[in-house]
Amino acid sequence: QSTMEVADAKKLINRDPDEDFGEESMEEGEEADDAADGDVERLLLPGDLAFSEPAGSDAKCVLGVGLRALLSNDDSIEFEVRATRSGYLRQRGRSFWLDCPGGRYQPARGDCVIGVVARRSMGDAVLVDIGSSEPASLSLLSFENATKRNRADVRLGDLVYARLARCDPGLEPELVCVDSNGRSDTLGVVGRDSGTLVVVPPSLARRLLTDKRRLLGLLDQLGKCEATVGLNGRLWLCGSSWPHTVAMTGAVASFHQRPDEECQKLVAEMQRTLGLGNGVRS
C-alpha cells in the first residue's frame, strides 16, 4: 500500500483533476488579492517539513507540486507534509504548493499545460511534448464530441491546451481536453493559424496565472490580444498584428524575477515607444 493511499485513508484530499491553482477565481475581494501573493514564503529543501496536521483533525488540504503527505510516527500528528524538491512554500487558503524558481517542469495532476504534438502513438493517441522528462499521452477520443468515427483533428506540430488527468510514477502522463462534464471549455488545439509560442520558467507561468489581474492586466496597455498560459511554462500569445505580438512576447519574457512595479514601468515604456492601445483577453 503506497504512502499516498494511506494518506488518502487519513482523509487527506489530493488535487482534483478539474482544479487548477493558477486559474482559481479571484473575484472575492481584497482577501483573494492577499491570498494570491501566498500567505507563506519559506524556502524548503527536499525532505524539509512544510507543515503537519494534529491527530483527529478533520481539516482538508490540497497539495500541489513539490509536496507529499507522509504518515508520522508521532501519535499526536495525523500526517506531515514534506518537500520533494527545492522551492518556496506558497499557500492559498488550504491549498499548498512549492514555487520552484528553475528546473524542468514536473507534471502534477490537474495542471493545465500547453504541449506540442510530437508523434503518433499506439491506437487513437498522440504523444505530446509538455517540457517534462517524458512526453504525455493524449487520446484523440478525449475531446468534446469525439468518437471512433469522428476523431479530433490533431496534427503533428499542433499546440494543444490540455489538462493532466494522470501522472503516476513510472508511467507516462495522460492528458485530456475535456472537463469532468465532458465539455472542452478552453481546452483543445490552439494557435494553428496565428499567434506564437513563448517559453518561460514554470514559476513565471504560475505567477502570471496567480496574479492574472496584475501581470496579464499590464498587457492590456499594449493592445487587444489573446493569451493562453500553461503551468508548464509555455504561453501562446496572439496580438492584433505581428509587431504587437512580438512586443507582448518581449514584455512577458521580461517579467521574470521583476517586481510588479518594475513590470509596470517596463510596459509603460513600451507603450510610449510603440504607441500601442488597450485590451487583453485570456
TrEMBL record:
Its main location: nucleus. One of its GO terms (biological process) is exonucleolytic trimming to generate mature 3'-end of 5.8S rRNA from tricistronic rRNA transcript (SSU-rRNA, 5.8S rRNA, LSU-rRNA). It comes from the Eukaryota. One of its GO terms (cellular component) is nucleolus. Residues 1-37 are annotated as: Disordered. Residues 17-37 have a biased composition (Acidic residues). Signal peptide: none annotated. Residues 7-16 have a biased composition (Basic and acidic residues). It is found in: Nucleus, Nucleolus. GO terms for molecular function: RNA binding. Residues 195-240 form the K Homology domain. Coiled coil: none annotated. The keyword Cytoplasm applies. Keywords: Cytoplasm, Exosome, RNA-binding, rRNA processing. InterPro entries: Exosome_RNA_bind1/RRP40/RRP4, KH_dom_type_1, KH_dom_type_1_sf, NA-bd_OB-fold, Rrp40_S1. Belongs to the RRP40 family. This is Ribosomal RNA-processing protein 40. The lineage of its organism: Eukaryota, Metazoa, Spiralia, Lophotrochozoa, Platyhelminthes.
